[in-house]
Queue: 4 jobs
Job 1
Amino acid sequence: MIFGRGRFPAAVETFEAAVRAQDADAAERAFGRLTHGFDKAADADLRAAGPRLAALLEQVPPGPRAVVAVLSGACVERGADPLACAPAVFASALDAFEQAAVFCERWAASERGELPGHEGEGLEEADFERIGFEPVMAWQALPQFEMACVAMLNSPQVRREVPGREGLAAAVARVAELSGEPFKCLAYALAVLDDEPLIVLDRATGAGFALRVSGIGDNFQLHTLLADALIGRGLVGGQAPSADAVACCRDQAGMVPTTGSFNLVGADGEWIWNEGNPADIPVVDGVRLVVLDPPAYRRNWPAGRFFPGMTGEVVYDHALAPEESAALLARVAKPIG
């Protein structure tokens, strides 16, 4: 059932007017109608609403601000323009993570022990005065801002064109350091590479290959798509992943079992763990470089996308000249471990 024709756009318009007028009571009533009708709204109305909601974020009070960011992200998932929504969502998320760092520092200084939960478990009413209203609200809002930002970062256009990823990544890393909570989804989404050159060397044969990677969330996904790009072409030996596993790592929903084809090693000799992401791969002469060794042990996992809304690609470009591969291999350390 579609939210009655015109009712959802009217709710957006009412909320917009109340926020701009700084009418807290009217904004609260309109916000209730907005959230109540969201799931039943037509896609066309959500496409129009996404940028309008994002544009309000700076003026929305800290309490509902994160929920409005999530609503904007949900609009993007239903077709709203991510380029129009992402800058404001990133700016609000940056402010929240910076304020949350203040919260973590002040909480530690109070010697209260373990940090409270994001839904308020462990907080006291007096904490809003002792620590500050905005830092407390920011700490509670981080899961919502993580969700909203990932919705934006599913878009390759946002990842390529919208500034602010570096500053937001630094703020996320700071809060992770202070809290011990990794915010892994957002940290990995901010680290996703697009059209990134990758050199792969097969230690057993000395062959080298140039590829490009885009939209890959973790190294489980990279491992599967690399095996398809190289073993599937007959360029290196080993067991290629199934077509279903490859499709799930590219753009299909779901996960299917697969078996590891290689041991991935960096130029420094350290293993490149599947649990990491491609941005962790060490750089040699400005390009990330992976060495393929035989698997040290049999390893199985469910093949699929770390970010279900993100299309992953490993594109084979060309084989390196033998002398180029040999020169690179001569600079690679023996595997550690």
Job 2
Amino acid sequence: MRYIVVGTGAVGGTVGARLAGSGREVVCVARGAHREALERDGLRLVTPEGEHVERVRVVGGPEELGELRADDVLLLAVKSQDTVAALDAWAPRPVAGGGTAGERLPVLCLQNGVANERTALRRFARVVGVCVWLPSTYLEAGVVGAGGDPLTGILHLGTYPPGRPEPVLEAVAADLRASRFDAPLPADVMPWKYGKLLDNLPNAIEALTGPIEGPDALALVDEARAEGIAVLEAAGIATVGEEEARAARGERMRLLPVPGVPRGGGSTWQSLKRGAASVEADWLNGEIVLLGRLHGIPAPVNETLRTLVNELARTGGGPGACTPAEVRERIATAARG
């Protein structure tokens, strides 16, 4: 199999580097300075045990690959706000022997949120959801860091919708296990992804207020999560609980310091730190807001977090621009209506 990493950022770069390091064939999709660095210096992965450099093929998009191979596997690792554009670029590409990528090739959604699989299924017949536990950071052009040890990450894989046959699933899982990941195959991956969604709700708080510490910030975390749980219960959506998730990780993936790499924040924090004009809050906190509206459950905490983070991204603000008290004041205003 050949793995095509669509979105060679923190997650895509780490998975691509580990797969390449175990001898798998990897193509990375990147543009601009990131592409130039990958072509010049290789894909550099910094981990607790040191730096690894992998020489991989790099392309700017599907056109440069020409006809795709029948054994290609697409690893979709872009942020959720970029999913549609990425899928639309790759789905119509021709595959050797006939047909298109959307008709013939599997696409694995290595993404936060729970909407990407449904979006992909509109364009691809073979969709695999992936619940990503992978502490990683985009450090600079061509360089990503990952602090998980001894496993770099845990990637639960499952077909979407559940029960659909996927001939390469076992082989992909085996390749990941040979590359410093665990790759469980639950019958239904979506409860894992909804559980991760709840874990991702505080991403917006961290991006807005900086490190989550102190009673005010921790109270916001509890409120955002409680609101999310109430909405998912009203919607009848099953989630994997915190205890089961912790048991799955165990001591197999501890977060260790990476030499020379300061500890940053989560994915939304990282996006604001890089000056990104968009973040994925609409697909994290916004998912709770959407489900709340569908089922008549108010979600003022998550609605305010979504709104504030989007405002910060649009205005070019960096992380830590608000205090917990300022966030709480906006929540109170939203709750009043």
Job 3
Amino acid sequence: MRRYGKHTDEDDIRQRPNRKGNRPRTNIRPKHEDAAEGMVVTVDRGRLTCLVEDRLVYAMKARELGRKAAVVGDRVAIVGDLTGKKDTLARIVRIEPRTSVLRRTADDDDPYERVVVANADQLAIVTALADPEPRPRLIDRCLVAAYDAGLDPLLVLTKSDLASPDELLESYGALGVPYVVTSREELESGEAVDRVRKQLDGKITAFVGHSGVGKTTLVNALVSRERRRSTGIVNAVTGRGRHTTTSARAIPLPDDDGWVVDTPGVRSFGLHHVDPSRVVLAFPDLVPGTEGCPRACSHDEPDCALDEWVAEGHADPARLYSLRRLLATRERREGD
């Protein structure tokens, strides 16, 4: 039934009164074309610290971003007060597309993913050779996470003055992972710092490791004095380290020659989110051999084509063993 005639006027159309007296909502959002570019360097209880040009700016996430959270390493667009002065607060209105995302879960049965860092190029897996003892299963899991995220892994072995690195390095030799071995004396003299820094030049490197392995001590040796963080000691009773880093933080290297991201110590590294097919891509010498595998092959079953591929001499058997060891980490806990 037609309520109005052919020639209606705006005054003839009934409008619902706005009781609040404010303007009606709209789905049209501003483009914020004049927003400044920044990088998230820390996140603390919903408040983000961003580097905008040469100053630190404190910001909150805009409501229109919904549940999408910004993490350390994110490139963001910021509007509002960008002076970085005390008691000022800007607003993050856009999170730029990420080039990489390093994730982990609490355990293998937990579907909830935690983003460790965004836009990193490299993952430095820091492991003490003693005090506390090395945990190869945790190293394996970190390697799988790095391969899954498309990051280059780097193995950093600390406290070589307490134990030899030879046995551990031999077990990872087939993977071809670059490594750096450090000792307390070399860190104090700066010799080890120079070796590590060569591996970090021009890259954004996330540092992960078990508590007490010397991760924050190493990061402090790499960055300028005013950017250093507090460190702790290993508990003499449990043999475990104490958490001195409670949140991830991106820190620039001297001369703006790269970034390091210091992350809290981990005691587990769940891989619920990992697709095994992406891990295989880190083994280019084995990838062609997977073409004959059955659908959804786990690469560790009787019909796996990789056995024949290696038997024909296309790849080193040690490489296949390493791949299967990494893929099996989801069935093993780190302490096994």
Job 4
Amino acid sequence: MPSSKIVDPAGAVFGVILPVVAALSGVLLTKLWEPRLPAEIATHWTTTSADGFSTPMSSAWTFALVTVLFGGGCAAVAALAPALLMMRRTMLVVGLSVVGMVSTVHVVILAVQLDVTDPADTELPLWSLGAGTVLGAGVGMIGAACLRDYRRRVSATHRPDVTLPRAAAPAAVAASVGFGTAGSGILLLLLGVVPALVVCRISGGWWPLAVFVPVGLLIVSLLRFRVIVDEDGIRVINMGMTALDYGIDEIEGARVDVVKPFDDFGGWGLKVKGPRNYGVVTRTGPAVIVTTACGDRLTITTAEAEDMAGVLNAFADRRRE
């Protein structure tokens, strides 16, 4: 039956309400501390000294606007119940990472200037960038785990086409898709550790590791999947959570084709190409292409494509006997 759910309650709390509360909390905290702050506070620093100043409340509203527009703008996607679950989870983690970083930096900027006569003499503790990013990402992961899949589910009425592959003795098939342990380590090194060490050398501190490494881990995690096919259907697991799943009742058929990620989907990872056309594409080669009664099509590149297609079609046959 089609789902009438428009808003995911958990998505609304974590993706909409939380960024707004964070933004307003920064404004209220500034108002509370304003008597102890200089008439103009430092809001920007070079590597040696403060070079940008603003009134406390003007700065507070700027931080609030950035928090809501950039962090909240990304995170709000989590509230859209009909949207792809994994897309909502990813946007929530990214959005709240931004919220955490901006909010933490704002609080630290205020704290280091309490009861200060000359704000030009203050320094911004750069560790706040990393600490805020990690804190926000952690809250985002908690929120992502609370999201639920409200997509429209429709049962297929016919068996898969007779020309599609069938497994003679269907049994569960599981496969890891995407970067393996070695590949993930290399990617994390290139995207997280190396850039962080370069910035560490330039800045003279270790705070960049807390920014670049979590971002690198997020990117790597988005390119690692576990695909499980059994009598219940097909499930794609990412970041320890079910990102996509189609019940065997929904599946109209599964076939095998050769897919090139950049030519066919414009890149690697979880991709969307056109309405209801999803891909978990991490390599060039065979892919299982699953069509469902609701109009969705899911493409997964894997060496086990033939086995997965055969198992899905065989189990779909049994379910409709």
